Amino acid sequence: MKKLTSEFSKIKSIYNTGKDLKLSDFLLLIKSAKLKRFNKGDLIMEAGSHSKEVFYFNNGLARMYVIKENGDEVTVGFRRENQVIGSYDTILFERTNQVYIQALEPTTTLSIDYDTIFEIMYKSPVLMKNLYLVFADLLKTTITRLESFVLLTPEERYFDFVKNNPELVKRIHDKHLANFLGITPVSISRIKSRQTA
Hints:
about 200 residues, alpha+beta, four-stranded antiparallel sheet
């Protein structure tokens, strides 16, 4: 119970839910969740599915990527401890999932079907409010990423990522980070060399 209370406190702080959310609200969701473990390299979700499964990361790290027609992989995001991920294509637009989610480290998640989440939240205004906060956080992340590609140079994108994710950058391989930032691994090496010079 102590660990559950600790996880609950982390979730509250991450999504700025204040004092509205109670442990009893949180337990409504936990009762319907399944614990899942993934090894490094495992696919948590594959493109082509219609799964509405939502994952809360207890620990670990994953990348989200798409595969272009020419076979190139494009990393579109990362998720780590105390963050949530699912197929936005399926959940929001009722279309086939386009994104692969791959564990970059041993990862433990709690998973629950989105329809179940919505059914539980529909009965609780406090939980529904928190669902909006999760979507607001995802929208903020998407807009920030889009703006960075429009307004920042590749080097500025790198330093912005490092500034905002100092611990995460140590856990991500340069090839995945470079791909996410729209630059080459060689460019990241050069940026790092200039930084230490």
